[in-house]
Amino acid sequence: MKVGFVSLGCSKNLVDSEEIMGMLKAAGHVLVGDPRKAEAIIINTCGFINPAKEESISTIFEMTRYAQKIIVVGCLAQRYEQELREQIPEISAVVPIRDYDKLPQILKELLEQDQVVPYCKADRTVSGNPWSAYVKISDGCSNHCAFCAIPLIRGEQVSKTIEDVKEEVQFLADKGAVEITLIAQDTTKFGLDNYGQLKMAELLRALEDVENVHWIRLLYMYPDEIEPELLQAMKESTKVVPYFDIPMQHANNRLLKKMNRRGTKEDVLALTKTIREMFPQSVLRTTIIVGFPTETDEDFEELIDFIQEVRWDRLGAFVFSQEEDTPAANLEMDVDEQVAQARLDRLMSIQKQISLENNKQRIGSTLEVLVEEKEAFANRYHGRSFGDAPDDVDGAVIFTSEKPIELGTFVNVKITDATQYDLIGICE
Question: Which of 274, 312, 345, 366, by CA, is between 20 and 30 Å from 289?
């Protein structure tokens, strides 16, 4: 059967999608990119915040125009299973995350397969560039931040074993992946649930001898769990890039406590100083929430001072979204929407200048770049340095080359110019 697949939401959701697509291919189905050619369409939904929910619902209705068999999986299915069944009768099946073990049998019946094909997490179909892949080292989250619905959707953290992660990384490397990005809701908490202690440093050391992998990147590192042993393991590694994605959310200690975030602003200031001393070429990324209930003008000014002091290389910011059933859903929305948006605009304006100044400091340096795209009718290429994650959040390195370059390979690029987000250069 010809099956279309739509994957919405984060990179963690994408890994689930790739595992399901691998199962479909193993069952003999043909994956099609054009929904008009699909006999059935599977939609892996996101239910994290309201805009994501709206996108998921809109996509479901759009896909009903193309196929009679619509299968909804993922976070929205997990959180609103009954509502989806009752309110959208065009849906053939709703499969929440907790029932993924039943997915092979459900698909067999709906897609008229001859046999049940196991849901094998290792046998993935990498949907993006074959040279770069995500590896989800745990699912769920045990942090219970006041604003976050992930524990409600995905449950408490469940880590894989070091051996299983290494096997998956080797599987992807054998398929051509030279860049591996380790992801979880909180990568630094890896191992605490099944080993009884933090095991990220040990995992990185175990991955050191996986052949053909050139870059290993960590995303979503909770600040108070970035211990000296982890930093040392990163420094000793020949594969782990000095890229630190540390979601901070705010800088005011009162608000951090209200958000149920551990640690303080002072802790993070000390941590970022230590990182830059140990890794002079490091790139630091964070995310910030503005407009959280009770945020005052003084709290926001403290946040601005913090941003200017740390000078994050990458920063994403969002206006607080009140999500039902989370602790923050019961807080009074006492920050005016226009005030929150004005704070966001000011914050991002300041960050754009910081980003430009940081990028300009790389002019004259030579960076190793993973080549990912060639412009048509030009000798200009687009790629990423160690400082650019593959999640379309960071910038790119745009460069010219007098000789053709194979995509998915590494080259050295001399940086000659910089914009707010991108670096410009020439292939050496």
Answer: 274
Strand intervals (E) in 50-117: 69-74, 93-95
42, 226, 372, 408 from 402: Cα distances, Å: 44, 43, 17, 18
What's the order of all strands across the beta sheet hosting 132-136?
132-136, 179-183, 215-218
CATH code matching the domain that covers 132-360, chosen among 3.80.30.20, 3.40.50.150, 1.10.3720.10, 1.10.10.10: 3.80.30.20
For domain 2-110, which CATH number applies: 3.40.50.12160, 3.30.70.100, 1.20.272.10, 3.40.50.1820? 3.40.50.12160
Angle at 221 between CA 183 and CA 164, to 5 degrees: 35
CA dist 116 and 31 (Å) reads: 18
pLDDT tens, the chain, 428 aa long: 899 999 999 999 999 999 999 988 888 899 999 999 999 999 999 998 888 999 999 999 999 999 999 999 999 999 999 999 999 999 999 999 999 888 888 888 988 888 887 766 557 888 889 999 999 999 999 999 999 999 999 999 999 999 999 999 999 999 999 999 999 999 999 999 999 999 999 999 999 999 999 999 999 999 999 999 999 999 999 999 999 999 999 999 999 999 999 999 999 999 999 999 999 999 999 999 999 999 999 999 999 999 999 999 999 999 999 998 999 999 999 999 999 999 999 999 999 999 999 999 999 999 999 999 999 888 999 999 999 999 989 999 999 999 999 999 999 999 999 999 999 999 99
CB 46 within 8 A of CB 9: yes
Tokens of 419: 């914009």
**How far apart, in whole angstroms, are the C-alpha atoms of residue 317 and residue 295?**
15
* CB-based burial label for 333 (10 Å; 0-12, 13-18, 19+): middle
